[in-house]
Specification:
Largest sheet: 9 strands, mixed
Pathway: Purine metabolism; 7-cyano-7-deazaguanine biosynthesis
Number of strands: 9
Strand content: 25-35%
CATH topology: TIM Barrel
Bound molecules: ligand 2KA, iron/sulfur cluster, magnesium ion
InterPro entries: 7-CO-7-deazaguanine_synth-like, Aldolase_TIM, rSAM, rSAM_sf
Strand order of the largest sheet: 3-1-2-4-5-6-7-8-9
Distance between the termini: 27 Å
Protein name: 7-carboxy-7-deazaguanine synthase
CATH architecture: Alpha-Beta Barrel
Pfam families: Radical_SAM
Helix content: 25-40%
Shape: globular
CATH class: Alpha Beta
Family: Belongs to the radical SAM superfamily. 7-carboxy-7-deazaguanine synthase family.
Length: 211
């Protein structure tokens, strides 16, 4: 089975509740959305066909057992991910998804799913199914300084907690940190259980591929 792979790299989880754990990232090509703030535009329509064995050869060189499928939107490759995870079942698998497509073949093979819904492309039925059928799930919202819609969605889905991740646009490090602090101050007034976490890999390594 063949899939287009944008990049495979070894780093730490830089986002969400599993932040800091070492992980191997498999970034699949292709996405069903075109977010203006996308930080992986190079992965939206790339071509780099690899078969499962070639991918396995690459990942097996790294001394880690956590694999994160990301993209692009990896659920477009539901069949491939299911095939891969069943074949190489000595790893723990994690998924980063925008929550618009339901990965029915692979969902029960992920130890944990990070859903990052985009406010202009919400599919409530898919989000509810992800909550219902995943083994473990968290919501991560990429936010700017106005996050009313995100709070409304939390309400609608009955979420008790979520991660808010300040969006990194054309910010310098200094402006990103200042923006994050402004968001923290605003969220202090809001009675939701929200963790505010910046994208730690960008602070540590800068804005580049493969980290
Ligand atoms: N270190 C690191 N952590 C990440 N967590 C989610 C990422 C993603 O691009 O989906 C990502 C990424 O690109 N790098
Ligand atoms: S869903 Fe994610 S990968 Fe796709 S365009 Fe939006 S930010 Fe980029
Ligand atoms: Mg990223």
């Amino acid at each position: 089975m063949i899939v287009d792979v944008s990049e495979i790299f070894y780093s730490i989880q830089g986002e969400g509740s599993k932040i800091g754990y070492k992980a191997i990232f498999i970034r699949l090509c292709g996405c069903n959305l075109k977010c203006p703030f996308c930080d992986t535009k190079y992965a939206l329509s790339c071509k780099n066909p690899m078969n499962a064995h070639e991918i396995y050869e690459k990942i097996s060189r790294f001394p880690a057992k956590n694999i994160i499928f990301t993209g692009g939107e990896p659920t477009l490759k539901d069949n491939f991910m299911a095939y891969f995870m069943k074949k190489y079942n000595n790893y723990s698998y994690f998924l980063e998804t925008n929550g618009t497509l339901f990965p029915k073949k692979s969902i029960n093979l992920f130890s944990h799913i990070v859903v990052s819904p985009k406010m202009f492309a919400i599919n409530l039925d898919v989000l509810k199914s992800l909550i219902k059928y995943s083994i473990s799930i968290e919501f991560k919202f990429v936010v700017d300084e106005n996050f009313t819609k995100e709070l409304e969605l939390m309400e609608e889905l009955g979420l008790k907690e979520a991660t808010f991740q300040p969006v990194w646009l054309n910010d310098s490090m200094e402006s990103y940190i200042k923006k994050t602090v402004r968001i923290i101050e605003k969220l202090k007034d809001i009675p939701y259980n929200i963790r505010i976490i910046p994208q730690i890999h960008k602070i540590l390594y800068g804005q580049k591929k493969g980290v």
